[in-house]
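User: tokens in, sequence out, please.
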């Protein structure tokens, strides 16, 4: 059974940092692109980062570029999102998701959230003083 479980969210002051984790189970992490998205109530979900583990490729949204680092630990089947210099506008629920097509069938990172087939439950990030 495929599962993605996020953790690491919380309340942080502007300028602070958080590291989000996405623990994957039920599939081989290296075979799929994993994306991080965020959503604010009333707004569309926004892709913030993505990694293709086997290729070492990483992508970042322009809105957060320079403040994010995505990485993975294959032994723990976990993807991490290190977020630095957080701003109040980064407040959102952050989700990780698995791209629906494996890399062996051409699947790679995509901005289209409809192309991701499994999602975690989300973790709340609040940036406030």
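Assistant: Sequence out:
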């Amino acid at each position: 059974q495929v599962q993605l479980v996020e953790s690491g969210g919380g309340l942080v002051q502007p300028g602070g940092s958080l590291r989000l984790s996405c623990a994957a189970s039920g599939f081989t992490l290296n075979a799929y692109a994993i994306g991080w998205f965020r959503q604010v109530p009333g707004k569309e979900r926004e892709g913030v980062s993505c990694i293709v583990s086997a290729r070492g490729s990483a992508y970042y949204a322009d809105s957060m570029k320079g403040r994010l680092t995505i990485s993975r630990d294959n032994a723990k089947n976990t993807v991490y999102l290190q977020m630095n210099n957080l701003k109040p506008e980064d407040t959102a629920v952050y989700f990780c998701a698995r791209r629906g097509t494996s890399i062996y069938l051409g699947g790679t990172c995509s901005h289209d959230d409809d192309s991701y087939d499994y999602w975690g439950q989300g973790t709340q990030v609040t940036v406030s003083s």
